[in-house]
Amino acid sequence: MASSKRYRFRLGIGFKLVALLGFVLVSAVASVVWVSTRLFIEDNTALIQQMNADAAQHQATRVREQFESLAQKMRVMGSLQLGSFADKDAHSKDLIGAGEDLLAFFLFEMTPSGPALKGRVVTPSLEKLGDPAGEATLERIQHEKNFSLTQLEKGEIQIAGTRLNDSIGLLLLGLPWHGMGSQSEKYSHGLVIAIPQAKWVKTFSESDVITSFLVDRRGNLLAHPDASLLSNSENVSGLEIVKQMLTGKFNNGQTRYVEDQTKEARLGAFSLVGLGGLGVVAEVPEGKAFEAAQRVQYRSLLVALVVLCVAFLAGYLYSTSLTWPIKQLAFAAEKIAQGNFKIQLKPKTRDELADLSLTFNEMARGLEERDRVKETFNKFHNKEIAEKILSGEVKLGGEKKRATIFFSDIRGFTSLSESISPEEVVILLNEYMTRMVGVIRRYGGVVDKYVGDAIMALWGVPVVGAADGAQALRACIAMRMELAQLNELRISRGQPVLLIGMGLNCGDVIAGNIGSEEKMEYTVIGDSVNVASRIESMTKELGTDLLVSQSIVDGLKDQFIFEACEQIRVKGKAELLQVFRCTGYRDENGEWIKVATPYSEYEKFKNEDPIRDEEQAAA
Q: CB count, 10 Å around CB of 541?
C-alpha cells in the first residue's frame, strides 16, 4: 500500500525537468522585463514632462494673445464711449458683437470718491441670459471678492471668474486705461468686459493625455475641462504644481505631485501668461502616462509565456500518452460549453481513458438532442402547442382545419393609456390579461397571440375538441362576467371601468408554423380569421361586448340565445355580413338563462377604420 502511494504521488522526471527549465526561464525573463520596464518608464517620464511644459507654454502664449486682442478691443470701445458722436453705442455694439462672444462692456471713471460708471454696452446675448440692462453683471463686478475696481486705478489688471446665476459662469476682465490721452501716474479710467466662461473653457478642452487649466494669482480656477469645478468656484492653490507657480520666481516649471483627494500621482508643468498674474497648468496622471510602459510590460510577459511554453513542451513529451487524452477531453468540454455538440473523440488506447472518451461521446449526443428539442420549443410562444408538437400530436408545416377563432379588444384603450403613466398601463394589462386568459384556458382555448390590449385565441387547433364552438362561446360569456367582477374592483379603487369587444367566428383555416428559419410561430391564417377580427371591430359600432357570426349560430342555436343585428359591410367582403348578439344560454336543466352586466352594452363607438367608412358610404 505504501509503495502504491509513493508511485501515485511521486514527481516524475518530466515534471522535474519542466520545473527546472521553467524556474530558470521565469527568473531570466522576469529580470529582463523589470529592467527594460524601469528604463522605459524613466525615458517616458522625461518625455511626458517635456510634453507638459510645451503644452503649458503653448497654451499660455495662446491665452496672452487672446487677452491682448481683447484689451485692444476694449480700448477702442472705451474711446467710442468717451467720444462725442451720437451713435457711439451703436458703434460699440457693432464692435463688441464682432468679438469673441462678449456679453457686456463697462467704462468706469476713477474719481476721488471711487470708481463711477460712465458707460455700458449690453449685447443681445446678455439680454437672453435674463440681464437686459446689465445690472446683474454690474453688481457682480462691484461685489466680486476676487475683482477690484480700485486696483485698476493703480494699473493692475483684474481677471476673475464669477457667476451670473447658478447656471451661467462669467469671466471678468478689467483693464486700467488713460482715457483720452491722460498721462498721470494713476489711471483715469477702468475698462471691464464680461465673457461667457463656457466659451473660454473650450480653449482648455481635455486631450487624450494632457489636461490643462487656467488659474489666477490666487489659485482660483478660471477655465478647466471639468465644468463642475468651475461651478463650485474651485481653488487649486493647494496643488503642488500651482503652489510652485504662485510662490516661485520662474516663468515656468514642472514637478511630480500627489492630488490630495484622489491620492493620484500626477506629472505637472506650469507656464505664466505674463498678464494679470495668470498661469496655465498642464498635467497628466501617472497611470495614463505609463500606459505605454504597462503595455510593453504586458507584451513582454506574453513573449515570456511563449518561451515558457516551448520549454514545457520538452517535459510534456515524457507524458504524452497520459496527458494527450486528458487534453482532448478538456478541449471537447470547452467546445460543448460553447454550444458545439458535434465533437467525437477517437480514443487511441484501450484503457479507462478510452472508456471515458466513449462515454463522453454519448453525453455529447444526448446534449445535442436536448438542445434540438429546446430550440424547437423556443420557436413557440404557447406552452400547450409546444407540448402537443413534442408528443407527436401536431405535424410541423401547414394543414387545413376547422377552427373557432376569437378576438377581443379593450374599448378606448388608446385614450385611457394616454391619461395614465406607462407603469399603470402595464399593471392594468397584466391584471386584465391574467383574468381573461385564465377564462380562455379554463374552457379549453389556446391563446395564439397578444397584440397590445388585444387577445387572439383558438379552439379546434392544434387538437380538435368535442365541442369547440360551444366551449368558445361559454368562454365569451364567462369573460363577460369576469370583466364585471374586475370593474367592481376597479371602481372600489377609484379607477375607470373597462369595456371590451369580443368577436367569434367558425370556419376553415390553415394552421401551421409561420415565420423564419430562426423563429417560427404556430398560428392560423385564412378568411375566417379576418372575418373574426372584423366582427370584433363591429362591436364598437353596435355598442355591445360580444358578436358572433352566422356559422356560430348555425351550430349552437339550440344551446344559446342569439339576437340578430343589422347587416354591415366590412372591408374585403362584397356581401353584407350578418352578426348576432349572444345574450344567454340553456342550462343543464333545459332552462334559458340570460347573462347581462352593466358593461355588456354600451354607447356606440365611432368607427375608426377609414376603408370601411368609405365602403359603407359608397353602399
A: 19
Contact in structure between 200 and 169 (CB atoms under 8 Å)? no
CATH superfamily of 392-618: Nucleotide cyclase, GGDEF domain (3.30.70.1230)
**Residue 453 CB contacts under 8 Å (≥ 6 apart), including other chains:** 409, 410, 413, 429, 432
| Spatial contact of 67 and 276, defined as CB atoms under 8 Å apart | yes
Sheet of strand 265-272: strand arrangement: 221-223, 211-215, 279-285, 265-272, 252-258
pLDDT at residue 232, rounded to an integer: 61
Which residues neighbour 48 within 8 Å (Cβ) at sequence distance 6 or greater?
209, 267, 284, 289
Angle ∠(94,188,112) on CA atoms, nearest 5: 125
- Fold held by 205-287: Beta-Lactamase (3.30.450)
Q: Which residues contact 410 (CB under 8 A, 6 or more apart)?
A: 416, 432, 453, 454, 498, 499, 500
Q: What is the mean pLDDT of residues 6-12?
A: 44
546-549 and 500-515 strand pairing:
parallel
* DSSP 8-class letter at 238: T
Claim: this prediction has a pTM higher than 0.70: no
* pLDDT tens digits, 507-565: 999 888 777 666 667 788 888 999 999 999 999 888 899 999 999 999 898 899 999 99
Give the H or E element holding residue 439: helix 422-442
Give the per-residue pLDDT at 506.
92
The residue-averaged pLDDT of 581-595 equals: 88
Integer Cα distance of 603 and 581 in angstroms: 15
Q: Tell me the domain boundaries of the chain.
A: 205-287, 292-376, 392-618
The per-residue pLDDT for range 26-85, each reduced to its tens digit, is 777 677 767 767 776 667 777 777 877 888 888 888 888 888 888 888 888 888 877 755
Q: Give phi and psi for 226, each to the nearest 5.
A: -90, 105
Tens of pLDDT, residues 416-441:
888 889 899 999 999 999 999 999 99
